[in-house]
Automatic annotation (TrEMBL):
Keywords: Cell membrane, Membrane, Transmembrane, Transmembrane helix. It is a multi-pass membrane protein. One of its GO terms (molecular function) is antiporter activity. One of its GO terms (cellular component) is plasma membrane. The keyword Ligase does not apply. The chain crosses the membrane at residues 9-29, 41-63, 83-104, 116-138, 276-297, 318-337, 409-427, 439-464, 476-495. It is found in: Cell membrane. It comes from the Bacteria. InterPro entries: Poly_Biosynth_Transport, Polysacc_synth. It holds the Pfam family Polysacc_synt. This is Oligosaccharide flippase family protein.
Length: 525
């Protein structure tokens, strides 16, 4: 039985929230189990690991989603052939990343990280690369089929397995060297990636008869060229961005040290921002991440069929809902940022960062959503150029501002970076789609609704002053109650401003079979 778009969005949103909560819980557990030194080593290993993960997977999922969405509208035999070629390309990239990380682990540990204990962890993590790459292709196939159930099931099983194996391994290695304990943590991550790939392969085998029939695979038209046109700008852009991001992560503490005069204080400030404030800022994006994943194949189909009316509706809905959700999230963090950070971390500094970043959250969220839509529109080359320029400008801004302004300079760099990429990508997307800005629906409505929510939030914060002054448990309950009240106020204010019409349209969007197309053509929004 085929799933509706609304059910897919609910599954992806719910699973994303569960996975984010599990990830936050796992990070807290690791911090207690490994201690400060162990977490420091773990974070350094992740800096190198992320580079090779990018090499193995960057662009693969986007290529799979877009190319399979295109091929599933045509002969099933060619669609089967495209999936086989995508899996082969992913396996090659994954094996190359495995070999690179394995061979370079000692050199990276000695010369880059300055700690030989990191070598074992890097080598343990390398074994997950091929599995991760193949899983990315299979997940893209199911997204193109508008069937997200297998993706959700595999990710939940992967996270549960990772947490269980990590906990057992850390218990068995209690008292051992920190390098050994970090190695078993990264080894558990690699094992969980293998489990996920096996599950996705099983789901794909069961889905294949419905998607492709029983025809033998045929070579799709220009498969190599089409794949390369997506892989090199998307994958290349992410690889360059990952390398530049790693360079930025090394530069920020050094520049903060110049401003503060003490390395320990600089690392502590950066840790509060990166490890406490930013995970909270990105957490609400789970409400939008599923929308972006599901819209990408729909945008690709509308563009392929030259259906300008449908393309305009899809992009307009994405932009409007993104602005409503991000403006509400910004208002919530502006009002409740300090109490939330105090309840979770006992850190007023993290709360201050949340308040500063709150007005910029529409830029942060819109930047990510528009980037995904650009790939669906075939504008990945432009997105690549903007990403490279953004990374270069960020490094220049860090070097120029942080020694003079400290963390305030870094926050300013983050906000200006989001403003640049958001404006550049949105302008290019609207031009490519021939879409004119709807200032009333995309900006005025969300601003008014979030303003009403902020006023309601300040009133609730005054009314809940007593619980906010109690223990952490009562503080969390008060923040949850205040956030719920702000959501209700935003919904009530935004409903007559266009939000209600978009939600009603989304609820009426039932799956419809395209006339004359096989079942593999997928749903419309």
């Amino acid at each position: 039985m085929r799933q509706s778009y609304l059910k897919n969005a609910a599954l992806l949103t719910g699973s994303d929230i569960v996975l984010r909560l599990a990830g936050m819980g796992l990070r807290i557990y690791l911090a207690n189990a490994l201690g400060g030194e162990g977490m420091g080593l773990y974070q350094m290993v992740l800096a190198v690991y992320s580079l090779f993960v990018t090499l193995a997977t960057a662009g693969v999922s986007a290529a799979s989603t877009r190319l399979m969405a295109e091929e599933l509208t045509g002969p099933p035999a060619r669609a089967r052939g495209m999936l086989a070629r995508l899996c082969a390309a992913a396996l090659g990239l994954g094996c190359a990343a495995l070999a690179g990380q394995w061979l370079l682990a000692p050199l990276a540990a000695r010369w880059w990280l300055g700690d030989l204990r990191a070598a074992a962890a890097l080598r343990a993590a390398a074994f997950g690369m091929p599995f991760m790459a193949v899983s990315a292709v299979l997940r893209g196939f199911f997204v193109a089929r508008q069937r997200v159930g297998p993706n959700v099931a595999s990710q939940l099983a992967e996270q549960a397995f990772r947490i269980g194996v990590m906990a057992a391994a850390l218990e068995l290695t209690a008292g051992r060297d920190i390098g050994v304990r970090c190695a078993v943590v990264l080894g558990a991550t690699a094992a969980s990636e293998a489990l996920s790939a096996v599950l996705m392969a099983g789901f794909c085998k069961r889905e294949a008869p419905r998607a492709f029939g029983h025809d033998r695979a045929q070579a799709p038209l220009h498969a190599g060229r089409r794949l390369w046109e997506i892989l090199w700008p998307v994958g290349g852009g992410r690889c360059v961005a990952s390398a530049l991001h790693t360079a930025e992560n090394m530069l920020v503490p050094a520049c903060l040290t110049v401003y503060l005069g003490r390395r320990a204080a600089a690392v502590a400030q950066y840790g509060v921002l990166k490890g406490m404030a930013l995970p909270l800022v990105h957490f609400p994006f789970g409400l939008l991440g599923s929308l972006g994943v599901l819209l990408m194949p729909e945008i690709a189909r509308a563009r392929l069929q030259a259906d300008s009316r449908r393309l305009e509706a899809l992009l307009g809905r994405m932009l409007k809902l993104t602005m409503y959700v991000s403006a509400l999230a910004g208002a919530v963090f502006w009002v409740w940022g300090r109490p939330l950070a105090a309840a979770l971390y006992g850190s007023p500094e993290a709360g201050g960062y949340l308040e500063i970043l709150a007005p910029a959250m529409p830029l942060l969220y819109l930047e990510s959503m528009v980037d995904g839509a650009m790939k669906g529109m075939g504008e990945q080359k432009a997105a690549f150029r903007y990403s490279v320029w953004d990374s270069i400008l960020r490094i220049a801004g860090v070097a120029a501002l942080l020694p003079r302004m400290g963390m305030r300079g870094f926050l300013l760099v983050m906000i200006l970076s989001s403003l640049f990429t958001c404006m550049a990508n949105t302008r290019r997307l609207l031009a490519a789609a021939g879409l004119r800005p709807d200032w009333a629906g995309w900006v005025a409505g969300p601003v008014l609704a979030s303003g009403a929510a902020a006023l309601a939030g300040w009133g609730l914060r005054q009314a809940l002053a007593a619980p906010l002054g109690a223990g952490r448990g009562m503080q969390l309950l008060a923040v949850a109650a205040g956030g719920a009240g702000m959501c209700a106020a935003c919904l009530a204010a935004g409903w007559p401003l266009g939000l209600g019409a978009e939600l009603r349209e989304a609820c009426r969007a039932a799956p419809r079979e395209r006339k004359g197309k096989p079942e593999s053509s997928g749903h419309r929004l």
